[in-house]
Write a structure and sequence with these properties.
The structure holds 2 protein chains of 2 kinds. Chain A is built from 3 helices and 6 strands. Chain A is α+β, with helices and mostly antiparallel strands. Chain A has one domain: Dimeric alpha+beta barrel (Alpha-Beta Plaits), CATH 3.30.70. Chain A has a 4-stranded antiparallel beta sheet. In chain A, a hairpin with a 6-residue loop joins strand 3 and strand 4. In chain B, helix 1 packs across helix 3, helix 5 crosses helix 9 and helix 16 runs antiparallel to helix 18. Chain B is elongated. The chains are: A alpha+beta, B mainly alpha. At the A-B interface, helix 2 and strand 4 of A face helix 1, helix 10 and helix 12 of B. Chain B: It holds the Pfam family Sigma70_r2. Chain B: This is RNA polymerase sigma factor.
């Protein structure tokens, strides 16, 4: 089963990390990801730019509205995601716990099973 | 990152929102600052044990408000403050507050807080110092070191600035859309001043260098609460593009490396990507302002893989647009650099000669003039211009850069012309 593991955090704090702080966190995150990558179960890992860089197209009365950013009221925002191949949800939970332990910025990791419509090749 | 470092960062991020809200509540800057300070102390005691609350800002406002009220009550010998343990569980008063305190509530509070730091009676350096002290919470010591003055002198300066602001009265009514736009523009200018105060420092370890990061943080905050302001997108994009070059701007010896000579592989691509995304978004609004145009110019440089790939024609068009939106001799001076690339040094020189009176005391004017004269082979006049530039240099790096140009000119003059 493919799982998307979505990372939520307070972006104002996370995007205020200095480069050194960021590098320190990334190093720990890579350490958690490495065994999974070696076993061939780790798909793309994505970092989303801040919500201020986002544009939303929402259904409007006549034609769709184009809105700057997601709703500004969000406390935590979706900042990044992993795609992983696990046998069970249990494994996904364990992996997410590891990520959570080394990432001081995260408030939660959401685990969402998904299936692939198109594998795509934009990133490769 | 340790827990404490993390909490420090969370407190710093929450500061403008929380302080802005407390200022509206207490209507007094000193009381609001004391209340926020107290809330931070309690956070440092409580959070490591219980974990940070879901909405740290709402927590800080709630605790700060209570402690501020308590301080006022203590002065009149009344009852004590409720323990913060009673408010830090998930299902408590704080979450109710959090629901009500969304970004649209914070919007005017933060804008007001920043705006009072830009009081027109205050000189720019004091505006910057006040904003860094109050909004960003930097210590007086840090600010003093950056401005190269003693701590007591800076303390006095900030106290006086605060007194002046308090005397002028803080506007607490909800601003009209027009007032809001005006405040936003004044605040944007101040944020960019803070950025430049840091960016002009050659030494990345210099105290002031951190100001650039602080300015970016404030810029992000402003865009977060005003997500549809194209000029804020432009300002942030501009700061990102400039700071992306920080690793390439100075040689190991601390000398200025010109844009065309910089090692472009050192430019920070993450910043560039975010800037381009923001600029793209901004331009959809079709309200080009000075920050968007400057960012668009910087973006063209960032898109060029090598200096010789730079699209000078496009940059020239953008500078002309900038001259229309925000006419200033400095903009024309910058366009002269483009003109020299496109049409040669003589045309550029013709463009800047009439600016002599307005820019006579400006380092870059004489630096560029010297450079153009040098290209035209008028070494004597070039030398004079370079000498004036050195006299006006604001930093050792600037002076060294000009001296380097003089040396090169002399070397070239010493070479036999035959080959």
């Amino acid at each position: 089963m493919l799982y998307a593991i979505l990372c939520y955090a307070h972006e104002e704090t996370v995007f205020a990390w200095t480069q050194e702080e960021e590098a320190a966190v990334m190093e720990k995150l890579y350490a958690v990801q490495e065994p999974l990558a070696k076993s061939g179960k780790l798909g793309p890992v994505g970092r989303l730019m801040p919500t201020t860089a986002a544009t939303t197209v929402r259904k409007g009365k006549d034609e769709p509205l184009v809105i700057d950013g997601p709703f500004a009221e969000t406390k935590e925002a979706l900042l990044g995601f992993y795609v992983v191949d696990f046998e069970t949800l249990e494994e996904a939970v364990a992996f997410s716990k590891q990520l959570s332990a080394v990432n001081p910025g995260s408030t939660s990791y959401e685990i969402r099973p998904f299936y692939v419509f198109r594998p795509g090749d934009a990133a490769s | 990152m340790t827990d404490i470092a993390w909490i420090d960062l969370a407190l710093a991020s929450a500061r403008p929102k929380a302080l802005g809200a407390l200022l509206r509540y207490f209507r007094d800057l000193d009381t609001a600052e004391e209340a926020f300070q107290e809330a931070c102390l309690r956070a440092i005691r409580t959070w490591p044990e219980k974990g940070p609350p879901r909405d740290p800002t709402a927590w800080l406002i709630f605790v700060g408000r209570n402690s501020g009220i308590d301080a006022v009550r203590k002065r009149s010998k009344l009852q004590a403050l409720p323990d913060e343990d009673t408010i830090s569980d998930t299902e408590d008063a704080e979450s109710g507050i959090a629901e009500r305190l969304d970004d649209s509530n914070y919007r005017d509070d933060i804008l007001r807080l920043l705006f009072i730091c830009c009081h027109p009676d205050l000189p720019a350096t004091q505006q910057i110092a006040l904003a860094l002290r109050i909004v960003s919470g930097l210590s007086v010591q840090q600010i003093a070191r950056a401005f190269l003055v003693s701590e007591s002198a800076m303390e006095q300066r900030i106290t006086r600035a605060k007194a002046r602001v308090a005397k002028a009265g803080v506007p607490f009514e909800t601003p009209s859309p027009q007032e809001r736009a005006e405040r936003l523009s004044i605040v944007s200018t101040m944020i960019y001043l803070i950025f430049n105060e840091g960016y002009s420092q050659a030494d990345p370890k210099h105290e002031a260098a951190a100001f650039s990061d602080e300015a970016i943080r404030l810029g992000r905050l402003m865009l977060h609460i005003f997500p549809s302001e194209p000029e804020l997108m432009g300002l942030l994009a501009l700061m990102f593009l400039q700071i992306s070059r920080r690793p390439a701007r100075f040689s190991a010896e601390g000398e200025i490396v010109l844009l065309e000579d910089q090692d472009r592989s050192l430019w920070n691509q993450l910043f560039i990507n975010e800037a381009l995304a923001l600029l793209d978004k901004a331009l959809r609004h079709r309200q080009p302002g000075p920050y968007q145009l400057q960012a668009a110019i910087a973006a063209i440089h960032s898109r060029a893989k090598r200096a010789e790939d730079t699209d000078w024609t496009e940059i020239d068009l953008l500078y002309r647009a900038l001259e229309r939106v925000q006419p200033s001799p400095v903009v024309t001076l910058n366009r002269a650099v483009v003109v020299s690339k496109l049409h040669g040094p003589q045309e550029a020189l013709d463009l800047i000669e009439p600016l002599a009176e307005k820019l006579g005391g400006y380092f870059y004017y004489h630096g560029l003039r010297g450079n153009l004269l040098k290209q035209l082979g008028r070494s004597g006049q070039a030398r004079e211009a370079f000498d004036r530039a050195i006299a006006l240099a604001q930093s050792a790096a600037e002076a060294a850069h000009i001296r380097h140009q003089i040396d090169k000119m002399q070397e070239e003059a010493a070479q036999p012309v035959a080959n």
